[in-house]
Amino acid sequence: MSDKRPSRAAAPMAAEDGLLLLQSQALAEEEEAKMKGEMLTRFLKDKLAKEERSSTLNLHKLRTQWRTVLREVKDKELHQDIEILSQTFARVMDCKDSVIESLATDLEEAEEQHAQALRSHLYNIDRLLQLQHCRLTCLEEGYGAQLEALKMELEAER
């Protein structure tokens, strides 16, 4: 019996030691799992931060490229608008130049007509002056003749 007692006493000790060993192993495994979880969490947070930075950078690059594309499109549109406006301007200028040339021709013709009318008027005035001068000369001669006749008649009566 004495053999059984120490083995019974040793058995609870061994069971306690085994339990303690199992508990310490469980704690070690739990701490290892906790550390692995923390490391995984840190790794995932770092990866998420890198992805966010990468996403922000890529978004910036996309916006920059999109703006470049939009600028190129706007540049092409503006060049087309300028080309259309310059062609329209050239047509309007041609039209206005032709109107100016037409008006200049009309003005030259009007000046020529005015000069012709002025020459004709001056010619008619000169003829009228000559006619009036002839009439005046005739009247003076008639007056002089009548005056002589009256003088002679007056002297004859005297």
Overview of the structural elements:
By secondary structure, the chain is mostly helical. It has a domain at 15-115. It is built from 1 helix and no strands. The chain has one helix at residues 4-157.
Which terms would index this structure?
97% helix, 158 residues, DRC1/2_N, mainly alpha
Write the layout of secondary structure elements.
Elements: H1 4-157
Quick recap of the structure?
It is built from one helix and no strands.
Count the beta strands.
Answer: 0
Gross geometry: rod-shaped
Biggest sheet descriptor:
none
Rg: 66 Å
Structural class: mainly alpha
Mean pLDDT over the residues = 91
Helix content: over 70%
How far apart lie the N and C ends? 222 Å
Give the helix tally.
1
Low-confidence stretches: none
- The succession of helices and strands, N to C, reads H
Range of strand content: under 5%
